[in-house]
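Thread: zinc ion complex, take 2
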Amino acid sequence: MSITIRIPTPLRPYVGGNKQVSAEPGTVEGVLSVLVTTYPDLQRHLFTEQGKLRSFVNVYLGDEDVRYLQGPATPVPDGAMLSIVPSVAGGAPALQTVKTGEVSLSNAEIRRYSRHLIMPEVGMRGQKRLKNSSVLLVGAGGLGSPAAMYLAAAGVGRIGIMDFDVVDESNLQRQIIHGMSTLGKTKLESAKLRMLDINPGIQVDTYTEPLTSENALRLFAEYDVIADGTDNFPTRYLVNDACVLLGKPNVYGSIFRFEGQASVFWAEHGPCYRCLYPEPPPPGLVPSCAEGGVLGVLPGVIGVIQATEVVKLLIGEGEPLIGRLLLYDALDMKFRELKLRKDPTCPICGEHRTLDHLIDYEAFCGSSIHGVAAGDANGLAVDEITVRDLDQRLKDGLNGATLIDVREPHEWEIVHLDAAKLMPRLDLPSHLGELSQTDELLVMCRSGVRSGQAAVFLKQMGFKRVKNVRGGILAWAREIDPEMPTY
Ligand code: ZN
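Output below.
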């Protein structure tokens, strides 16, 4: 009476190099505990410290995942084949596409990379892999800035960057790749200058086109690793889906105020972003960094973590953040780690894929039934008023109209119009009694987005005459009062 346990490549060193080992029949749990007693080095690869089978070690009886049989209690009968299929155990899944053979390092490169070359984990082999590899950074903002600089410094042979923004003074609080000398230039131009100044030996390719469902697969296909440093949900889902469809690792980072997240989504070895967040949050529920703010050094921490993960994947060393969500809280100065599971029902990386192509991500992220945008879709489109017209109305004494500023009190403190009443958007429900049903309600915020949502809400609450101030106080500062500070 015996069964066979098939050992995957990364675990073979712990069982004397064997492809398979024989064992006595029993339950899955019993068989595996005998296995790790025989091969103690295998213990930590298969089980957690609490003795539970690791989340990303899947065990198959024949071709069935035992989770869908009786779990650890599943009987393994005589003659059966048990396969261990780990996603993360046994070290980094090295990128198959990166080769070392075709490149060499010049004397200048050997000098430049000497601190890498003297580490056995990198060495000539790793440095050549870096030179021979490519990474695409989606976004040259807060996360992309430090990532681009360190990846350039590390000697990643080809770095692509996508961005279509222009360097603005308000970027410089965190986007350290840009500076006063590149104000008004495109972020791509600015980033490329800085990267080539750090390391003229690399190739920097820039893409001004916005990432879309039409170009994502073509652009991503050229790169070994994709690093997602975007600030919006449609692009996050687009990056994820394109990476899953192409089998590329997606090095993820996100930031908000004092908190950051990082992970590596690589569907072939672990969960994807959709496994973690099957649906986007309703529009307007999660404020953007432009709306909610971000501590300037935070993207530095998270962007550098992303760069670290990229380098590890490229050289094939270490334990990547696959199946793990790293949470960073700058205020508490704490890192936490959550285990991520691959969702078997995930539409794009699950067992029964229902999504085999890229979709309309704006619609996917904007069509939530919870969001105020749903009101908009239900025909509650809101009229707008320009700042020039608002200026005229104010000069005329604002007869029969109320100007409502729906920003936060700390934004009001930076700058506001004297004629406006402060009613932060999320407090609006408690202010409804103060508003006249007959008055015209003119709603403003910083740029016109939040006030648009607030205006839809007011119409839903039965106010008939609601207008959104197009462009918000930023438009006012631009067109009416250039002396006014902007933020
Ligand atoms: Zn998934």
